[in-house]
Amino acid sequence: MNQNIVKSAALAGAAIAALTLSAAPGMAQEVTLRMHTFIPPVANPGKTFLTPWAAKIEKDSGGRLKIQPFWAMQLGGKAPQLLDQARDGVVDIVWTLPGFSAGRMPEVEPFELPFVHKDALSTTLALQDFQDKYLGKALGAYHPLLLHSHDGFLFQTKEPVLKMADLKGMKLRAASRGGVWLLESLGAVGVGMPLPRIPAALSKGVIDGVTLPFEIAPAVKTQDLVNHFSTLAGAQPRLGTNVFTFLMNKASYDKLPPDLQKVLDDNSGRAIAKAAGQNWRDIETPGRNVVASKDKNKFHVIPAAEVDKMKAASQPVFDRWYEEVGKRGLDGPTMVIDALDMIEKHSGNS
Predict the structure, then answer these.
(1) Contact (Cβ atoms closer than 8 angstroms) between residue 279 and residue 147
(2) Which pTM was predicted?
(3) Cα–chain-centroid distance for residue 240?
(4) Tell me: the pLDDT tens digits for 106-146?
(5) 286-296: per-residue pLDDT in tens?
(6) Which domains does the chain have, with CATH numbers?
């Protein structure tokens, strides 16, 4: 039998065993949920969101509900497989990007299209509204805990990016297909690549740079591996963002007693969206400070006239996405309009 299948079956069995483990008769049930993700525990999202969230779940449940984290794909598989691991019950909870699997969850992609995003707070709040209207089917195989975004990606490159022409032929990593299409529209070579592969790819010259927020730079060593960091002039200083999904296996949730389900509900969705969005805004500063601590690193702001060129050049990305999702029966233009309106609605909270 295939070893991967055996391993998956064993993990699923362990997860079920953890959920069905009860204390002696008359005592309250205690449950441990296994949380799997691709980032290392030292990465800002782990330190500032996932670990504190797990601690709060344990505290709010009086110690009866524990979250056991497994970092950097410790339980096996690759980052694009995390969605399947949660859906299939191999693990109980995952934190990941649908964008790692091109077209896997296109309903969230309006927020990942060029220049739609403003900041992590308004986008994360908008995603809660968007989830209610559009994402029931896409998330139907899971119990959703939260959808959110980071504060937006910038160019982090070996050679300076001061204008659109500087991108011509540059090999740059993006996390999603929308990000790859954007880079291609600007004259670069877009390379889809999960986060853990970035350091080696930069070291070996496979890529010339990345599109990432500052907060994740220390986890992939871009402060050491590239020299130039370029944001945009104007009210939208970032090119775009990526949508993250924090998802739970439906059976794992359904098996919990009602009071433990309530603990999760009180620490999910709209109850934590504002704090999560603000967290991703806040952690940009320490990430940027790590980059700035290296004397070799230079910060640039791409002028407004060049930003306008980029916006114009990226418009075909929308048409490409509309065509792709139209094949699935999705009304892409309306979804993008709604995403923009929802972000604008919440921009006053930013």
Answers:
(1) no
(2) 0.92
(3) 12
(4) 999 999 999 999 999 999 999 999 999 999 999 999 999 99
(5) 999 999 999 99
(6) 3-150+243-282 (3.40.190.170), 154-240+294-349 (3.40.190.170)
